[in-house]
């Protein structure tokens, strides 16, 4: 297994993992868009220059050509610019202009923010999430940040245990999309 920057050919597999996280977040857009629109929107957005290393990092754990797990994040100061990429594709996908995918700030400006981490269901419990998390200091240092931050849902204590096991500490409670999260941080 290799941990590496995602390639464009990995994006369709990444999107299937991202959709698992979006469901857990219960984002309103999930009820406004068809599965096809949502998939295409994320494929186009995650294939954009901004998401392919210009402002964000898409990292995968791969075995041959199979994406076993993924994580995506960015330096917090770029968050709004990344949110603004989604509407660029609305007209082509017949998505209403009023649709909001992400709109509430999650990240602190000076941290490398882990927006999404997901391991394919068939590969959970094999240490892949831990290996991805252990790769974070490399990504954060390349981005010239000294901290990695993330949100973990109150209702996901297993994930919280994993993050704490690799050195994250709770800094505060944060509400995003009407869900309560712990904002965890780790110095790198």
UniProtKB/TrEMBL annotation:
Give yes or no: UniProt keyword Transcription: no
Q: Name one GO molecular function term.
A: acyltransferase activity, transferring groups other than amino-acyl groups
Q: Which UniProt keywords apply?
A: Acyltransferase, Transferase
UniProt entry tagged with the keyword Transferase = yes
Protein name per Swiss-Prot or TrEMBL: Acetyltransferase
Which SUPFAM superfamilies does its entry note? Acyl-CoA N-acyltransferases (Nat)
A single Pfam family it belongs to is Acetyltransf_1
Question: N-acetyltransferase domain: which residues?
Answer: 1-188
